[in-house]
Amino acid sequence: MSDALQNSVTLRAPAKLNLFLHIIGRRPDSYHLLQSVFQLIDWCDNVTLKRISENEIRRIHPIDGVPPEQDLVVRAAKLLKEFSGVSYGVEIELQKNIPMGAGLGGGSSDAASTLIGLNLLWNLNLPTETLCKLGLQLGADVPFFIFGKNAFVEGIGEKIQEIALETRDFLVIFPNQSISTVSIFQDPELTRNHAQITIEGFLASPWSNLSNDCQAVAMRICPEVKQALDWINQALPGSQPRMSGSGSCVFAILDPKNDNAKLENLLQNLPEGWIGRVVRRLNKNPAYNLVSSD
């Protein structure tokens, strides 16, 4: 990485899909232990960071209803500043495209991009491992986005192993309702004892025998999740849709033989207020090469 300082950087912060999500236990501190495969997709926010000489963290155009103490990009910048002791400040502008509370990891990806971008702008040269440890303090999904490649994820999100996935397109539907992650994981009916699987087990059966343990709870507290699943089942029979993460987005793997005109017609006839799009998998976070793996 060059020692020359840039003044600003804009990073594409990609969403992810949980191809499955199993909760296999709970730690004494109440954190849930999970297994999942995280798939990067080309639905992205844009994070623009401008280095300033003032010792301040400024958020340009904050999101309505999200106070600074809950804003993950602000928290990420403060965390890195406190860790590094750097005297520079930053102006942060976030173009939000990924729905919030949707299970697509948008906030975590924004936080990861903030850490990666500031590592560059502030010339810190921190390696991936260090940034991942900082990211875990912000949320379980943040280390994955810093790691930057599709992965088999375990523990509370800190055990990340690269995995090679097939080239696929997905239909993703957001039924215009957000779900609180806390409400899902605090629900007494949440499955917390799913049997563990291996990477080999996943690759042998990457779709039909796997599930999202959060889905049943989500359908109960947010009926729109079930409505979206039913909508995909009717539109694409046999596609076996499921929910992503602990949010409200649902998705299905698209058959390469699907007619693009038919898909476009389906998206144009979504229920009012819903958001849908066809997305393509990414092999790497677009910011992957901005951080050292040493």
Task: Describe the structure in your own words.
By secondary structure, this protein is α+β, with helices and mostly antiparallel strands. The protein has a single domain (7-294), classed as Ribosomal Protein S5, domain 2 (2-Layer Sandwich). The protein has 9 helices and 10 strands. The chain has helices at residues 72-84, 106-121, 128-136, 142-147, 181-185, 199-204, 215-221, 223-235, 260-268; strands at 8-26, 32-52, 57-60, 89-95, 151-155, 159-162, 169-174, 242-243, 250-253, 275-280. The strands form 2 sheets. Strands 1, 2, 3, 4, 5 and 6 form a 6-stranded mixed β-sheet that branches. It has a 4-stranded antiparallel β-sheet with strand order 8-9-7-10, covered by helices on one side. Strand 1 and strand 2 form a beta hairpin. Helix 1 runs parallel beside helix 2 and helix 7 crosses helix 8 (223-235). The longest helix has 16 residues, at 106-121.
